[in-house]
Amino acid sequence: MSQKAIVKVEGLSKVFGNLKAVDGVSFEIYEGEIFGFLGPNGAGKTTTINMLTTLLRASGGSAEVDGLDIHKHATEVRRTVGVVPQEYTADEDLTGLQNILLCADLYGIPRSDSKLHAIELLKMVELDDAAHRKVSTYSGGMRRRLELACGLINYPKLLFLDEPTLGLDVQTRTAVWKYIKMLKEEYRMTLFLTTHYLEEADSLCDRIAIIDHGHVIRIGTPSELKASIGGDVIVVGVAESEPDISDEIRKLNLIKDVKKSDHEYRIKSEVGEESSIQVIDLVRSKGLHVTKISLTKPTLDEAYLEFTGHGIREEESNKMDAFKHRVTMMRARR
Amino acid sequence: MTDDLPVRSTVTTQEQVISEEMERERTFRAAPNLNKSPLHGLWALTNRDLVKWYKNPIQLFISLIQPVVWLGLFGKAFNFTAIFSSQPGVTQSVVDALNLKTFGTTSYFSFLSAGMLAFIILFTAAFAGMSVVWDRRFGFMNKALSTPVGRGAIVTGKVFQSVIRSLIQAVIVLGIAVALGMDTTDFGVLSIAGSFVILFLMAFGLSSLFVMLALRSSDWQTQMAMINLLNLPLLFASNAMLPVSIMPSWLQSVVKFNPVSYANDGVRQMLLGSTTTLAPLWVDFSVLAAFAGLLSVLGIVLSWRFLTK
């Protein structure tokens, strides 16, 4: 992967009244990667996206998208990026095709091109059969796929997805994941998504920034983040409690820690799959008998909770946001 | 039969194109040249609201009920001619003279009919802001704001759809008024065209005003309250329903500051040949042109400032 940054964010912040929604975040997104913003409710994920997509003016700091300053060249930034917002923004009274053509018109894409491109995109998200139906008859999954198609109408280099699977059923979520992976792999697109679903971040993202209280706490690949709270745990049960071979195990590659308790060795390793085989070989070469073995990989959940703490978040909200959230969830669940 | 051949060959070509497209590697075509004019997307936004409107004829029907009730019930019930002629010793010529002196035309109904044109425009324009509020609430506004479409175009699109809707409704109301007995002796191509220029200017100014008031609002209750707060004074403190001459003097001076009065005045002069005028015709045109120009410019300037937080 090329390491050319397509997004550069330096100390970006946003203050609403007394609330520092985003407090000086800095990160880079490399071309061609899927970059995830992972954080609890109210962590500042959407606010950051809204600043990068020029919907909100930043209170401080700077950000460049594809070399364009988000304040000085806001219109150019809007032409470069695609946005799939958290809410369902399609017009209920128009058909899917009319909605996507409307988006194209707002980008100034000539109809000669947008008519073809709209059909292509609707095929891609498997909505071509429903293209001439009013959006009010769409299911939640169909609406989400339509939003995705609309976000791609302007041939974006970079696509922002805000909570792309919020409130969706498993089938639709899997489909959305498939499209996201396809956009990266086949269309070489850079994607920036926010989520509070850990499995989503884990399975989709090349790199993740964990964000909380408006701060970026950690940035890394999912495996780096998991590794940072300690490695894989291998538990090996041995029939004989003597001799103690802890020191020999410790000398193996990739082993970080070994603890022995009676008939059991608890081993921490950087790569559990490799170490477990080596450990079994070692145990047997000493003439001992393996009675059981288990390998546990740390989940992103553990890493995440380690970084963000266990407290449940009470998100600040207002009437407008509450209404929008209700509408979003209502439409997703149709 | 020979006609079939070219058609068939076209079908084949289309099929070929589609299959070629499917076989091609999955990459998007190169992005086309974008239309970067500040007005791009303006018609698309206007048309969106218009489509929503004409695909829902019930909305149009309901919006026409109010002026029809005013015309058919109020306009017919207020039979000034009967009041005048019921006085002892009053002849028909005296009644005509009284009507002409008070209303500038042959009957109160004709006078009110002209006022109803401004009425329907005022009430349609007032709701131009509501669609801004709904777009904000349902997220479409954010979608539009994340595209490079001009902020001014978003506002102007809202104004245009309201202007077009209100003018179409005014045409229908005029048709109903004529059917119910409005005096058409002074109707002509120029007088009707001129009246609609006046109504266009008023619709533009009022729609800009109400869209502007809704720019930051996401609360439809507040917006409704604002509409009611402005609508009725604009209507009653004007010459839409009653002639200025019978109003107390303090109200007369208020009426003179109301742009709606000048629209009514201009329309009555042209459509009814009204002789009891508020101002010369050129003043009516100038006042409304200034009103429309000022508020639309103000709306666009404020949209740059207020649409992005």
Euclidean distance between termini CA atoms of chain A: 39 Å
Q: Please report which band the strand proportion of chain A falls in: under 5%, 5-15%, 15-25%, 25-35%, 35-45% or over 45%.
A: 25-35%
Order of helices and strands of chain A: EEEHEEHEHHHEHEHEEHEHEEHEHH
Range of strand content of chain B: under 5%
What is the gyration radius of chain A calculated from CA atoms? 24 Å
Instruction: Give the structural class of chain A.
Output: alpha/beta
Describe the structure.
The complex is a heterodimer of chains A (334) and B (309). Chain A is built from 12 helices and 14 strands. In chain A, a hairpin with a 2-residue loop joins strand 1 and strand 2. Chain A has helices at 45-52, 74-80, 96-106, 111-124, 140-151, 170-187, 198-204, 222-227, 246-250, 272-285, 300-308, 319-332; strands spanning 5-16, 19-30, 34-38, 60-65, 68-69, 81-84, 158-162, 190-195, 207-212, 215-220, 232-238, 255-261, 264-269, 290-296. Chain A has 334 residues and is of the alpha/beta class. The longest helix of chain A is centred in the middle third of the chain and has 18 residues, at 170-187. Helix content of chain A is 37%, strand content 27%. Chain B has 309 residues and is mostly helical. Chain B contains 14 helices and no strands. In chain B, helix 3 (57-77) runs antiparallel to helix 6, helix 6 (108-126) packs antiparallel against helix 9 and helix 7 packs across helix 9. Chains A and B meet through helix 2, helix 3, helix 4, helix 6 and helix 12 of A and helix 2 and helix 8 of B.
